[in-house]
């Protein structure tokens, strides 16, 4: 009994098969996410929605060809973004992602940025119901920007049938025939005709009352998009329709937020573990049985639980700034080009060597260590500037630079883990997940040492697929809850490791 799983991330689109009998993930396939549409405005991050749809359906069809009797299709996607389609499910806009910050643009008629104007309209009390921090990269802000620009008679470019064309936003303003879709919901609509989305992907739009599990009428009204057709929010994990493919009808399951799938796939203990994930950006999270408001985002999870989460932490893109600098030196000065993996491997080795030789001695002597402020991107949690200081005659070396940057990132995560500890029982262990953490033992050790508690790596590199496997096991009726699947998967992985 096998299911197909598809993961649409920020860097890669991946697919695989979930073998619920053998508790295995097989037939993995990965393609790189296309480049965003060209735009002179650096705040705009849009992707050709039809191109993305073709890539996603292509992955599914290739998997179906090698999965006879497929039991269903599971989907997990990046969150916060949106697409507007017509009543037939054809994209009227590009996919506008979480990386899009058009809301920060200044609006003359509002006397402030679109983002600030919307937050003022919504008010702090109402926005708290979304469980989100105030941030520009959510669908609510992008929609508000679009509709405000419609009032000004401006034009945007949209993608229809793969061809760019100019369309007045006044056309989009006839919203009663338009549908709001999450990225996963857009795929489901194309596959099944059902206009739905899962609560884990609906909530990140900033248009949902998380506790009620419903679209928030007050926020929708403040945005001005109440005439849109909103998808039905699904809270459970039952199938939402069928994909009538050349291999027959295949059940399709609701789109799961990649964050929730990752937490589930980490196999962390729901009571006293924190998950530290680092990919392009970083986040830390834990599971809570209670609806607790605090210095964190509060995201819906499974079976009535929530995820207190601290987001926008430094991640792989912060370290990549330094990697690109070293790569540029090698290419410009020495005419040497190294692959990204080779360069990372050498830089981490240099950081480890420098740390062993110099950092311990500098600490013992009370010398000022090289300090790298890693805030190379605006609006990140725990850091607000990018700089290198405390340079002395010994520490400005490649290894010193990278060791100092990772020590700084570890300190940022340590401070925020202490904040997250107040959201429930004491945190007794850390589980690391994400591609950057998988590759970067130096950073894992630095965070674990800073926090001073046990730390382990998630058992699977692509943990979102393990999370979807847990959901498939429950959907198949083999287990009553996702909690029951944790122990059996841990035993299976332990047996596999012992056998290897």
TrEMBL record:
It holds the Pfam family FGGY_C. Residues 356-475 form the Carbohydrate kinase FGGY C-terminal domain. Keywords: Kinase, Transferase. GO terms for biological process: carbohydrate metabolic process. The keyword Transferase applies. It comes from the Bacteria. GO terms for molecular function: kinase activity. InterPro entries: ATPase_NBD (IPR043129), FGGY_C (IPR018485), FGGY_Carb_Kinase (IPR050406), FGGY_N (IPR018484). The keyword Kinase applies. Residues 3-112, 182-265 form the Carbohydrate kinase FGGY N-terminal domain. Belongs to the FGGY kinase family. This is Carbohydrate kinase FGGY N-terminal domain-containing protein. It comes from Paenibacillus oryzisoli.
